[in-house]
């Protein structure tokens, strides 16, 4: 079996971590008897520089005609002065997610036992955390109408938060389905005390819950959730939430794993799924071989599981990551005293050794 993967390294550390995950995929494929046809394409700032557009038509066509899409990260200071609708994030990443129908972004967040003591949070708070955030990905504040208007005394800018019943229903159902395979608990996070879209979200979620009597549903306001995530994260099984809330809460939750460089993601819902680390292009460390490749390598494991049902191969990659951490290898973001500092490629070398 050969899987055809559209590979979009993007910008900044995207171009450093993606090749590392491809090495891991090649290796695990050899072991389990499958292979990959990787086709690289431009996206983001790199695509603006080369073609004038952050999401060239050929890139989109390649994604639509592949078995899965594997993305690094996009954006960076070079393109920061562009208006939102022209910059890499707004004109490439969001449209790509929309075109591919990827309405669900799954971000599993667990503690790695080797990293607990490196955390800024107390061991008793984070140990045993195993939560999953189901973030709505093609609606909400990032996709509503935007406007800039000239006023007498300056300008005003408008972003709109819109959700339809159907958009809420499909993501909430996925959350309930995921909870069924886990602890059976869904926490729906909203701001229903002030946002009308959240009131619709909550009403819809309550209605859908009737189809899942075996799953416990609770509701929480997003501000409280941000606090509860660092107070007592073990209370959460599946969190389902609006696009921007999920974006923010998962960067925060990544610290329960040890670093943003440890958090993988899968975006599903359409014909072709997309896998990418939760982090961005990290301009502050780009080009210095410091990037932690593990979030991207763990995203590759999610691809094997979700798109290709290669569950055993996925588990083996996750186990290799655990072992490498247990042996004391660390990139800078997770470094602590008496551990071995390695660069992006060396960390991957260690993972490959465990897969040998
Ligand atoms: N999916 C995507 O393509 C995303 C793109 N971005 C874009 O990335 C650019 C930078 O955004 P930031 O706010 O700085 O967020 P970021 O996620 O790129 O970085 C935040 C912090 O985490 C660190 N970090 C992130 N990934 C790491 C890794 N693998 N290893 C070690 N350290 C890591 C960075 O060095 C930085 O200090 C912006 O242009 C932003 O729009 C941001 C988030 C997601
Ligand atoms: C363009 C942003 C929405 C990207 C991001 O921060 C994310 O998807 O996590
Ligand atoms: Mg984000």
From TrEMBL:
Q: What is this protein called?
A: 3-isopropylmalate dehydrogenase
The cofactor(s) it depends on are: Mg(2+); Mn(2+)
Instruction: Give the record's cofactor note, including how many are bound.
Output: Binds 1 Mg(2+) or Mn(2+) ion per subunit.
Residues annotated as binding Mg(2+) are: 223, 247, 251
Residues annotated as binding substrate are: 97, 107, 135, 223
Q: Where is this site: Important for catalysis?
A: 142, 191
Q: Where in the cell is it found?
A: Cytoplasm
Reactions this protein catalyses: (2R,3S)-3-isopropylmalate + NAD(+) = 4-methyl-2-oxopentanoate + CO2 + NADH
Keyword set includes Chaperone: no
Which family does the similarity line name? Belongs to the isocitrate and isopropylmalate dehydrogenases family. LeuB type 1 subfamily.
**Which Enzyme Commission numbers does its entry carry?**
1.1.1.85
Its pathway is: Amino-acid biosynthesis; L-leucine biosynthesis; L-leucine from 3-methyl-2-oxobutanoate: step 3/4
Matching NCBIfam families, A to Z?
A: leuB (TIGR00169)
- State any single GO MF term: magnesium ion binding
Key word Cell membrane present: no
Q: What does this protein do?
A: Catalyzes the oxidation of 3-carboxy-2-hydroxy-4-methylpentanoate (3-isopropylmalate) to 3-carboxy-4-methyl-2-oxopentanoate. The product decarboxylates to 4-methyl-2 oxopentanoate.
What broad class describes the main subcellular location of this protein? cytoplasm
Its GO biological process annotations read: L-leucine biosynthetic process
Binding, NAD(+): 76-89, 280-292
Boundaries of every Isopropylmalate dehydrogenase-like domain copy: 4-351
What is the top EC class of this enzyme, as a single word? oxidoreductase
Extent of the signal sequence: none
The entry's cellular-component GO terms read: cytosol
Keywords on record: Amino-acid biosynthesis, Branched-chain amino acid biosynthesis, Cytoplasm, Leucine biosynthesis, Magnesium, Manganese, Metal-binding, NAD, Oxidoreductase
């Amino acid at each position: 079996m050969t899987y055809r993967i559209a590979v979009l390294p993007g910008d900044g550390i995207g171009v450093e971590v993606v090749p590392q995950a491809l090495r891991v995929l090649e290796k695990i494929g050899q072991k389990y008897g499958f292979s990959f046809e990787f086709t690289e394409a431009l996206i983001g700032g790199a695509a603006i520089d080369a073609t004038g557009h952050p999401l060239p038509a050929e890139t989109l066509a390649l994604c639509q005609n592949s078995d899965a899409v594997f993305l690094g990260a996009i954006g960076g200071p070079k393109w920061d002065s562009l208006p939102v609708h022209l910059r890499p994030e707004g004109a490439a990443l969001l449209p790509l997610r929309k075109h591919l129908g990827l309405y669900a972004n799954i971000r599993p967040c667990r503690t790695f036992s080797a990293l607990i003591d490196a955390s800024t949070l107390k061991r008793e708070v984070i140990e045993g955390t195993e939560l999953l955030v189901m973030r709505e990905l093609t609606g909400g504040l990032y996709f509503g109408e935007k406007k800039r208007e000239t006023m007498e005394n300056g300008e005003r800018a408008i972003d709109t938060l819109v959700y339809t019943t159907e958009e809420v229903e499909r993501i909430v159902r996925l959350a309930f389905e995921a909870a069924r395979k886990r602890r059976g608990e869904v926490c729906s996070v909203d701001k229903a005390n002030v946002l009308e879209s959240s009131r619709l979200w909550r009403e819809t979620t309550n209605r859908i819950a009737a189809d899942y009597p075996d799953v416990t549903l609770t509701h929480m306001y997003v501000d409280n959730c941000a606090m509860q995530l660092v107070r007592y994260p073990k209370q959460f099984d599946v969190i389902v939430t609006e696009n921007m809330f999920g974006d923010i809460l998962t960067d925060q939750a990544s610290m329960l794993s040890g670093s943003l460089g440890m958090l993988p993601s899968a975006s599903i819902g359409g014909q072709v799924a997309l896998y990418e680390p939760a982090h961005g292009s990290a301009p502050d460390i780009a080009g210095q071989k410091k990037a932690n490749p593990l979030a991207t390598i763990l995203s590759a494991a999610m691809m094997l599981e979700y798109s290709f049902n290669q569950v055993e191969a996925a588990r083996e990659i996750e186990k290799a990551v655990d072992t490498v951490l247990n042996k004391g290898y660390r990139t800078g973001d997770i470094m602590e005293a008496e551990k071995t500092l390695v660069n992006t490629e060396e960390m991957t070398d260690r993972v490959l050794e465990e897969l040998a």
